[in-house]
């Protein structure tokens, strides 16, 4: 048996990513060399490692929690949905082709083999590997081709703990039903339960926990409380619990200092790397709202067009919903607009996909015309971790894109903005993650506030974004130590003492 653990869940968003991150930080604080792992991640939120490999954003953060260097083996298969029936495949950090819906059960044997090899590689270099499952292990219609849940557990002989979200209700039925739907060989790997997001009197829950243990023959390894103000870079676009819905980062300190700065983030159907705006939302006095409402876009102090996995179709959607008109009106009035990656590409005069990278056939369409650029899509994906500066502030970032923007030669009234351009109050860049650079974020928002006539000022004494992430990871580890049976978990992972 490999020294490790598989953290499965009764549903998507049950808390697998958070529990995995908490376990990684708890083990790292004990001096254990631990690596996170997810055999297959389906997400448009990704990150570029130092060696240029692309992995899921959640696994990158889990590596930070583990105090390990993020690498492709931690997320060997990344599926990036391009439509409801097609996903782009990233294998060991590099583009590998596409997977159609009809190939879901049969077309993944090579992916499974690479995933198992990646796990074994990590297991040979780390003391423990904490693997995160995907969705539910009881997706019985997909079991034959599964290599991320019980298929992984069987292949590398991992014990499994199942996390259930009690805040949604029905957690006991979900746990019991998960076990009941598995065959006997899969059931043998399920070793315990973790209840997540509990609020209230634990005494009232105890009878149910005892009945669950009696009926399943597996122990409840702990009950984690609902942790407020804890977020984790999400696999699901714009579903970050710490701030989605607006105002997650404003706090009393920001309101005491002056007016709140409002930011509207357009919710594209195929939004990607939406974690770019986490740092904006974490800034005191900044209220971030995710929206598809033209009136909200029109009224905000800053509107953000985030990244997207389908620039052309999401641009068409922007026009159909009346959002494009709201963005154009803002720009005409000199009110701030920011485009990031796909959102930046939409600001161009022309978008050309002659290689049919995003489209079913070659096509050229007009952009919003707010920046004098021409975007061209190429088959080769550009990946990197660039560094730069703006207004004297250092910026670190990462880039993941097929489209490149070229400035029209005779263009006037433009100035550099990171790797992109600004004209008036319109800014565009392909760089993701730039707003995690505290000085740059605060300088940019100060300029936005001045243009918007809002009396917002940055709270320079407030913790920076990286410090907030570290504090969050330590809070998760504290919760693991306080509320879970760490002795039992350590024994499951093959650790002594």
TrEMBL record:
<comment type="function">
    <text>Catalyzes amidations at positions B, D, E, and G on adenosylcobyrinic A,C-diamide. NH(2) groups are provided by glutamine, and one molecule of ATP is hydrogenolyzed for each amidation.</text>
</comment>
<dbReference type="InterPro" id="IPR029062">
    <property type="entry name" value="Class_I_gatase-like"/>
</dbReference>
<dbReference type="Pfam" id="PF01656">
    <property type="entry name" value="CbiA"/>
</dbReference>
<dbReference type="GO" id="GO:0009236">
    <property type="term" value="P:cobalamin biosynthetic process"/>
</dbReference>
<feature type="active site" description="Nucleophile">
    <location>
        <position position="341"/>
    </location>
</feature>
<dbReference type="GO" id="GO:0015420">
    <property type="term" value="F:ABC-type vitamin B12 transporter activity"/>
</dbReference>
<keyword id="KW-0169">Cobalamin biosynthesis</keyword>
<dbReference type="Pfam" id="PF07685">
    <property type="entry name" value="GATase_3"/>
</dbReference>
<dbReference type="InterPro" id="IPR011698">
    <property type="entry name" value="GATase_3"/>
</dbReference>
<comment type="pathway">
    <text>Cofactor biosynthesis; adenosylcobalamin biosynthesis.</text>
</comment>
<dbReference type="InterPro" id="IPR004459">
    <property type="entry name" value="CobQ_synth"/>
</dbReference>
<dbReference type="InterPro" id="IPR027417">
    <property type="entry name" value="P-loop_NTPase"/>
</dbReference>
<protein>
    <recommendedName>
        <fullName>Cobyric acid synthase</fullName>
    </recommendedName>
</protein>
<dbReference type="GO" id="GO:0003824">
    <property type="term" value="F:catalytic activity"/>
</dbReference>
<feature type="active site">
    <location>
        <position position="432"/>
    </location>
</feature>
<comment type="similarity">
    <text>Belongs to the CobB/CobQ family. CobQ subfamily.</text>
</comment>
<dbReference type="InterPro" id="IPR002586">
    <property type="entry name" value="CobQ/CobB/MinD/ParA_Nub-bd_dom"/>
</dbReference>
<feature type="domain" description="CobQ/CobB/MinD/ParA nucleotide binding">
    <location>
        <begin position="6"/>
        <end position="231"/>
    </location>
</feature>
<keyword id="KW-0315">Glutamine amidotransferase</keyword>
<dbReference type="InterPro" id="IPR033949">
    <property type="entry name" value="CobQ_GATase1"/>
</dbReference>
<feature type="domain" description="CobB/CobQ-like glutamine amidotransferase">
    <location>
        <begin position="263"/>
        <end position="439"/>
    </location>
</feature>
<dbReference type="InterPro" id="IPR047045">
    <property type="entry name" value="CobQ_N"/>
</dbReference>
